[in-house]
Amino acid sequence: MKALAGVRVLDFGLLTAGANTSAMLADLGADVIKIESGAYLDPFRVVGKPDNDEGWWNRSPQFRFTNRNKRGLALNLKAPEGQRVIRELAAHCDVVVENFRRGVLDRAGLGYKDLSAINPRLVFAAISSQGDTGPERMNVSFGSTLDATSGIASLTGYEGEEPRISGMDVNYPDQIVSLFATGIVITAVMEARRTGKGAFLDFSQREVASFTLGEEIMASSADPVRASGRRGNREEGVAQQDAHRCKDGRWIAVTLDTPDPAIDAFCAGRDSADAVAALLARGIATAPCNDGADLLRDTKLQGVTLVCDERGGLVKGLPYRLDGKGISIERPGPDLGQHTDEVLRELLGYDDAQLKKLADTGVTSTTPTVGEV
Amino acid sequence: MDDKTALPLARFTILEVNDAKMPLCLRLATSLAAKIAADLGADVLKIEPPGGDPVRRAPPYLPQGESALFQFLNTSKRSLVLDLSSDTGRTTLKALLDKADAVLFEEPAGSAALLRASRATPIEIAAFPVEMNAANRPVSEFAILALGGLLHMVGEPERKPLRLGGHQASYAAGLTAFTGLTAALAARDAGQAAPSVRVSLAEVMQWVNWKAASGADAGGTSPGREGRNSEFQIVPCRDGHVAVVYTVTQWPATRALIGDPRLGDPMFTTRAGRRENITRLYEIITPWFADKTRAEIQKVAQAKGVPFGPIFSPAELLETEQYVSRGFLTEMAHPTLGALRLPQLPVQWNGRSFAPRPAPELPAPELAT
Predict the structure, then answer these.
(1) Is B366 on the interface with A (CB under 8 A)?
(2) Structure ipTM
(3) Which CATH class is domain B231-315?
């Protein structure tokens, strides 16, 4: 039995920070029902669209990577009927995950105050750029904005040059938020089981990113003239560390406990595989600088991080293994609205006439009204 | 949550077993996971080798010479020195394990067999996936960034790749181990058999860097560092730097914000067009930033819904209005080091924060009784 079997998640999560938090809950056995609508798609459906043909919104690799093992509903949050259905669903759920801009769900009557009045056991994870309070609570950000505002970018860059961000193909702060938020949600679920009381969990993505610089912040606070900034690949307390280009043109990363001015020439004179093997044999920490294609090829290195769904598509696996195992994908990322009828029948007992009325009034429409994000 | 009894993990007892021989990059992950649990109220006992956890001597340092790294990673814990090479040490450890819910340690710690066999759920931190069979391979955080593909993503395409600032490989693994720990505790709490948890830094880095694999799988070629060819770049302003970041839908607002009519040229209308003419685009927009401060830029950009990111150093974060308002960088009174400021856990639970308590002093070694 999985740790979160019996837990149901109402998932408004989008992109990575929100949608991946609920995906990690699904990995642990939670029943995750993802809410989107034709009027508001998870932006991953759009940024990853491979073409403009009919059904493009169901073919994005980024969406498929992140939303496996969930069921998908289409419900328009702007329609009063859509809002009413969500409120009914909230009574049957244990967790809400959302990363809308602050105020969006409140305006729809679907914020923590509204939903906890219906279901006091609800654990409500609000994952936002800056948190739910403070003068910048309404600020917008997109992945790498937080590299900048968290402090990480100020410590990233070539020696003495300008700061660097992780960029749109990484959006690093979004990734680590879900690793932390999932554990806090599980902690709150334990508390709700024990006490019968839910919780409002206010996550600031920027704070999560700054949290990873805890020792730098502490040292800077104690010593205002402390030198920080860009040091290339050097690291305080490490004798010598850098990336070196090998004879075959590939880069390798090398960390040395004692300085060796000849290391660059050593690498330049050998192919990368030979250089790595020779350095490892000397007890030196080194590795090839892999790209995505290398990662796809090296199945041993992959461990449990990638897995195929039932359609044969590659999707995200686990960041850890539980009892030595990864996960199997029980369902691929849902088509928009794929499980609307199934879930409304199962949880709310809706009949054909009720479902038809929602469809006829456009509340459960699966026709996208957006094409670009 | 000032009242300790009200803290959510208060009923759990957790051991963190430190082996002096393990690579520091693994220890940072172990200690971060246990620190989060400790700040949330778990009774975390850190078992240190004679002479203490080597992180006690690792940079960055406070002006008094103490390790800021150790102070940050070990808040709210208690500590006990045990020599696990002695029978007495192992006997004491066994007795402690009998009362613990979970035990965190690194692979291949000398005491791993003992720890795995206890009734406490094992949470293991390793460098590499099981499949690599590489427990004794030399490791550094930097090598892990390379192996997991994150290094390939930052910097200029023709120059060497760059690591991200901070201990990102270790800390991402530490956050993962914390979440694995809570899954194990939740299972125990529900009366189920708890799963053992194994986290490797190399797997976590690949998982974090999933868009590289996804991109290579979908397009045949891997994404990589784009530097000056990227749509998102860093530009200088009057008092520092700003990251230019915007989505496709935010382009019209971005164009209006900069207000230069040349941005109306059809070559910039689509994302593909902007990427193709990126050098020209930045020639046009860069001067707009030069005479404005980060604060001014953020204000006018946010007013138009444009997510530009002013770049702050760790020292500057201490003064940012948002962090001050939320009390995120809290002051902790340390008995010998005085007041230390550090980030508290990045969550507010029903509006309450989790104040960290000072890391333990190095205790005298446990004497045989």
Answers:
(1) no
(2) 0.98
(3) alpha beta
